[in-house]
Structure formats: structure tokens, C-alpha cells
Amino acid sequence: MTFIEKQGRTPLTDGARVHWTVAAPADGGPLGADGERPPPVVLLHGGPGLPDYLADVAAMVADLAPVYRYDQRGTGRSPWQGRHTLARHVDDLGELLDAWGARRAVLIGHSYGADLAARFCLAHPDRAAAVMLMCGPFLGDWRAAYQAERKRRMTEAQRERLRVLEGVPQRTEEQEVELLTLAWFTDHSDAGRGRR
User: Fold this and answer.
1) Alpha-carbon distance values, 183 to 54, 62, 75, 101 (Å)
2) What's this model's pTM, rounded to 2 decimal places?
């Protein structure tokens, strides 16, 4: 696999700045039967609240088409700026596609990224060349069973600390990391490893 990777930061219309990475074929990539290059791929990470973790997936297909990844606003290398709503995240993706010169793209979303991809397709059906949803979107009452299992795997002290942190209106970065760790460490089969 031969691809070139570069990074950038794009200013959005509301003043937020979003960090992104693209891995693209060094030779421009293969041509399709129509003589055109395939559309770019956009990998949408989960969370919200997790930074990009999909570099290994990008490397699997970056010799075929440009593969974009980005840290959603407020995560990783994208500062916490502006509103954080599903509608705003959909707008962010549209603005990024425009900045990258991509009229259409293949969207691959994982977890929350699957929900984001689905909502983007509903708002902009003409901009998705294809969509792949992994571990989402969440339908029905999946939260009740998930929350019961999380509660079972946490100590009373951990549950209380999570409750306290969720009630803090303006968390510090350290508090936010602690909250996310408590909220998600039970997702790992090895809870100790999950906390690390």
C-alpha cells in the first residue's frame, strides 16, 4: 500500500476549527470503468467525545481512494467551540466535504459515527455515494439493557462519582476524562484494562 498522509485544520462557519487527516493514494489511485477516480471515503468516529481512532482502517483502503478522518469538535485536536448538537455535527460534515472539494463521499461510521452518517444521509441524500454503518445507529430501547449492565459492572462509589460528574455544568478537562472513563470502561470485557 502506497499512500501519502497529510493533516489540516478547517475553520467552520460558526468559528469552530476542526482537525482532519487524509490518507490518499500516492499515484492518485485507480480509475473506475467510467475513467473517473472513486469518491473519497470519510471515516466517522464514535463517541461523541472520542478523538479519531480509525487510522488503521484508513490504511486498509487509502491506496484506492482518499480517506478522510477528523476529530469531531471538542475531541482530540479539535477545540471545544460552538454548539454540540447532532444538527451541528451534520453541518460540520457538510462543511468539511465542501472544504475538501468532495461533492459526494463514501461514509463509514462507527458507533456514534454511524448515527451521524445516517443523519447526514437524511439531510443530504445526494452527497453520500455509499454508506457503511458499524455498531449503530441505535434503534429501540437499547439503553435500558446497556445501563443495567454498566451498573452491574461498576462499584457503588464509581456509580456515585459518575452521577456527580454528570451534574457538573462546566467540567474541567480532567473531570471530562474521568467522566468518559467511568461512562465507558465497562464496555471492555476486562474492566481493569478498560479503565486504563
Assistant:
1) 21, 33, 16, 37
2) 0.75
The C-alpha angle 37, 38, 41, rounded to 5 degrees, equals 135
What distance in Å separates the CA atoms of residue 146 and residue 141, rounded to the nearest whole number? 9
pLDDT tens per residue across span 127-178: 999 999 988 766 666 678 878 888 999 999 999 999 999 999 888 888 988 9
Residue 194 · residue 184 · CB < 8 Å: yes
Beta pairing partners, 18: 10
Q: Which residues share a beta bridge with 171?
A: none
Spatial contact of 157 and 171, defined as CB atoms under 8 Å apart: no
C-alpha cell at position 138:
441505535
The position carrying cell 462519582 is: 161
Residues 6+ apart with CB under 8 A from 84: 48, 73, 74
Q: Phi/psi at 34 (nearest 5 deg)? A: -85, 0
Q: Nine-digit cell at 127?
A: 452527497
Cα 121 to Cα 117, 128, 155: the distances in Å are 6, 6, 40
* Separation CA 7–CA 70 (nearest Å): 9
Sole residue written with cell 469531531:
72
Residue owning grid cell 461533492:
103
